Amino acid sequence: MRALNQEDLEERKRKVLQFVIHEYIRTSNPVGSNAISTVSSLGLSPATIRNVLSELEREECITHPHTSAGRIPTDKGYRRYVDSLVDLQRLAIQEQTRIQSEYETRIREIEDLLLQTSKILSSLSHYSGFVVAPKWERHIFSHMDLIPVSSHRFLCAMISESGLAKHFIITTRTELPRESLRKIVRMINESFHGFTLQEVKLQITSRLENLQEEWKDILSMAKEIGQEIRRFSDAENELYLEGAGNILSLPDFTNPHDFQNLFKMVEEKHILSELVGSDWDEVKTKPLAKGTPSKNKSRSRVKVRIGSENKNRALQNLSVISSTYQLSDKTVGVLGIIGPKRMEYSKMISLVDYVSRMMNHFLSEFDKDI
Amino acid sequence: MRALNQEDLEERKRKVLQFVIHEYIRTSNPVGSNAISTVSSLGLSPATIRNVLSELEREECITHPHTSAGRIPTDKGYRRYVDSLVDLQRLAIQEQTRIQSEYETRIREIEDLLLQTSKILSSLSHYSGFVVAPKWERHIFSHMDLIPVSSHRFLCAMISESGLAKHFIITTRTELPRESLRKIVRMINESFHGFTLQEVKLQITSRLENLQEEWKDILSMAKEIGQEIRRFSDAENELYLEGAGNILSLPDFTNPHDFQNLFKMVEEKHILSELVGSDWDEVKTKPLAKGTPSKNKSRSRVKVRIGSENKNRALQNLSVISSTYQLSDKTVGVLGIIGPKRMEYSKMISLVDYVSRMMNHFLSEFDKDI
DNA sequence: TATTAGCACTCATTAGTTTAGAGTGCTAAT
DNA sequence: ATTAGCACTCTAAACTAATGAGTGCTAATA
Question: Rounded CA gap, B75 and B306, in Å?
Fold first, then answer.
């Protein structure tokens, strides 16, 4: 028997870890040395496997719940698996067509698209799907208008160049004659055309103050309006979250404490919204496997967070697979799925990747449509 | 010992049932004959109590989970209790002030009021609070406007006389020049002023069609707009639901199946929205106990549904206490709490009653404000 | 005649015991 | 370097026994 060098040993270790993870994902039971020896095609005896396993355990990639149980992957093990062991594949054609057909319901608004996407993510993963709505502040201001509702209340509509519309009711303490209203609206529209909405938000109050001279009479009203616009621009990103119930029915979830955490997350969606916030800044790309280049030239931006890698307590026993989406070449939002750590990463990464590409596709159509 | 007549026996039965329910609510454990004999002030031996209990059991007001357990109330038992045994009281002053202080956060819009109310209901009951938003269709149409977003898209704002505003984006296939747009808006505003929004919804398409002669050029566009308005008027009532997580942590909830049902309810709020729909039509009033007349002259409209009295499956193990609220003297919405069957009905009924009065109070202020 | 004491009976709960089997780690043989 | 062999550990399941809370019935009682 020829001597094995270091590389071969590493290779074997990798294969064993991969097998453990695959088997654990499949059966949800700890995997023993016997099973690996018999079922895998490594051709090694249980005893040898045991040596490999104890080494993997020393490296904290696996543990066992108790002495007489098989091994299960740790978060670190999953991480290693996702980083280098998972075989990334293109999504099956059959699933691609399924997704495309799901998108065929009439989508009029961006909101419809976001909702439908989160539903698709949920129903194809059988886990929970989410979409964080486009980040309002990144858009370019086009125009706004105020419609009187009553003497002190107005419906304020703000439209971005990409066609996103935000609307909310504002209330003023002072009464506003129609003429002044029109003047204020015209002024805002003229001075902010072409600015980002973040700039509008930050500068609206100060701008309105600078016009003191000629606007003395309606200054205080303009100020009030500015404040209200600011207030609504600060609102957190909207989040679409579907299929959270799916996670409950998983065999991995038995602890009632986990239930409560999950519940909290659904009730206070902003928890999750904050959580994925970091995706905007630091985006670690995970290219698809060689030999399967994507149709679209752009790189996949799928990110995986496993269990304790999530900062949020409610997600300590879950994994989040997310990607970003763009509008007019700017990253404006995040979408993805939330599922058990014990999930088919290969398939799920492909799914999220594919759906995020579809989102980009549809969003660019919206963009063209303007 | 003097002979007891039928009435005295009935009275005793009532007292025993009341004691069982109170004790069960307090401890969440089945109540035995011994406990009743010792703790209650009836002065009867366990054996006598047992006779009463078995009679109550024959009447299906109580059961026991197994032979050697004490008694617990059935839905029928709770019903009897709520109908005639519960001591209705005014809410404690301390709680009244707590509620009033909770309402002191700045409430600008009806939406704020609804959200805040559902939070109050949740936090004071320690269960789940809900408010079904005002029924749009019952309001009187005041005016509407269309703001162009892009060539094919408009922000449509509809304002009711009571100041409720509804706004949504509509998309048309054909392009609309500004002039035609203004014409259509003027026409709608003139012809529907004073109508209910339901009438607007039902008649808008047919009205637009009747104007054929003079409007030939913009008829198809007007039609499209009419259809879109119709579509958005059909949208279901919005629902505010807070504190559903509170229910999970109750000792009454152990069955994972119940968890799932509850989850479903939170995810698909319209389930609940449908559920309380019946409150608009058939309202069974439950006046407060004599001797404690309410400050406000109007009758309390609190309704209690216990366990299986709820049609919805998700609520089979829960009780719903609800009341309606008015705007301009019309019943436009429902609010209440959802909790375990095993809850302090007296307190909760008072709470819902009081909060619904507060809602009416604030809403009438909104109304005046217009 | 209504009430109650007495008693046999039921059944959930808990603890204790045993057994089976899955899986490990170590050692010595190959 | 690999593996067979074996003692060891620990869980899960199944069985047993003891406890005790609560009932329903009957006969005695005020």
Answer: 6
